[in-house]
Amino acid sequence: MRVHVCGEGGVGKTTFVLTLVKSLGSVMPVAARIGVRTERPYAVEVSLGPVRVRLYDYPGQAEFREVVSTNLAKELVAGGHALFIGDCTRPDTITSLEHWAKLFEGVDVGRYMVINKVDVCEPDVGLIADVSSRIGARYLGAYTFLREPEHAVRILRSLVHVAEIENVGMTGGRA
Ligand SMILES: Nc1nc2c(ncn2[C@@H]2O[C@H](COP(=O)(O)OP(=O)(O)O)[C@@H](O)[C@H]2O)c(=O)[nH]1
Ligand SMILES: [Mg+2]
């Protein structure tokens, strides 16, 4: 299955992906040129039990607009899962997840949302409830990828578990 890691620059997307790579080990980096001017977003693959998960780490805001304008994101998202990450130190990164969600409009993807950096801030539960319902994402909780590397694995487990139960976004199979 494929997981598209979305969110503004600095929220912790790369920390999340690299933590998973470190925790789950033996991972082959996967080249993922999508035709825009850099090689990003890049993808890595991790194994969680029998499930192989390919994670796409998307670049921050500036490059993100270019990805949208070239419409390549849609090619990448069919049948995958979108993990929206907000940073509780910057509430604007939570509201702006609505822009990211637009990328996935009309596409069969599972939608999940997490908040990062609870080591340094208190998440605004009202804002989180509001945004997650507006973007149709299941809220999986607030974490700190940097201080508690196990949190990243926990999130991925939850995501895989829910995805298998709901059978959403699994059209691409398990690869
Ligand atoms: N305090 C704190 N900082 C974090 C956490 N996760 C990531 N960071 C820091 O936030 C910054 C941006 O992280 P990065 O993974 O590069 O974000 P990206 O731009 O979304 O890929 C880095 O300095 C990280 O060390 C966290 O859980 N708590
Ligand atoms: Mg990054």
Explain the overall architecture.
The protein has helices at 13-24, 61-69, 72-77, 92-95, 97-102, 125-134, 150-166; strands spanning 2-6, 29-30, 42-48, 51-57, 81-87, 110-116, 138-142. 37% of the residues lie in helices and 23% in strands. Strand 6 (110-116), helix 6 and strand 7 (138-142) form a beta-alpha-beta unit. It contains 7 helices and 7 strands. With 175 residues, the protein is an alpha/beta fold. The longest helix has 17 residues, at 150-166. Mean pLDDT is 83; it is low at 31-39. It has one domain (2-166): 3-Layer(aba) Sandwich (Rossmann fold). Residues 7, 9-15, 60, 116-117, 119-120, 144-147 line the site of guanosine-5'-diphosphate (GDP). The site of magnesium ion (MG) has 3 residues, from helix 1.
Which descriptors would you attach to this protein?
single chain; alpha/beta; seven-stranded mixed sheet; 7 helices; binds magnesium ion
